[in-house]
Amino acid sequence: MDEFELNLGEELEAEEKGEVKSPPLYKVFLLNDDYTTMEFVVHILEKVFHKPPVEAAQIMLHVHKNGKGLAGVYSHEIAETKIAAVHELALRNSFPLKCTMEKE
Ligand code: TYC
């Protein structure tokens, strides 16, 4: 058995033990409503999700027309932090803006 076969055995074993898989990712979606201003949603996409201005406006319009739209993809912890930031900013500005996450 050469060194390559030995490596292959270790890699298969690590894979089986679940030592190889990258952590799951979560899609964060913005939801449409009738009260949040377009300007505020664009602001959220720029400041919380670091979208450039043109893309932020495109995502906002997609949400407005289709009911929901993808703001970003993150680890579970980062996704939760982004959602909390959106809900806190929305509440502070008296908007009902909501976002959700879904496992990829
Ligand atoms: N529908 C809102 C309006 O007409 C705009 C809006 C867009 C609200 C996206 C929320 O996630 C949203 N003012």
Structure overview:
- The protein is elongated.
- With 104 residues, the protein is of the alpha+beta class.
- Helices cover 53% and strands 18% of the residues.
- The model has no long low-confidence stretch (mean pLDDT 91).
- The structure holds L-tyrosinamide (TYC).
SSE series: HEHHEHE
Strand content bin: 15-25%
Protein structure class? alpha+beta
Fraction of helical residues: 40-55%
Give a quick account of the main beta sheet: strands, pairing sense, barrel closure: 3 strands, antiparallel
Number of helices: 4
Give the strand order of the largest sheet, numbering strands 1, 2, ... along the chain: 2-1-3
Low-pLDDT segments = none
Mean pLDDT: 91
- Calculate the terminal CA-CA distance, rounded to whole Å: 40 Å
In total, how many beta strands?
A: 3
Number of domains: 1
Protein traits:
single chain; 53% helix; 18% strand; elongated; alpha+beta; binds L-tyrosinamide; 104 residues; Ribosomal Protein L30, Chain: A
Give the arrangement of secondary structure elements.
Blueprint: H1 3-16, E1 26-31, H2 38-47, H3 53-66, E2 68-74, H4 76-92, E3 98-103
Antiparallel strand pairs: 1-2, 1-3
Bound molecules: L-tyrosinamide.
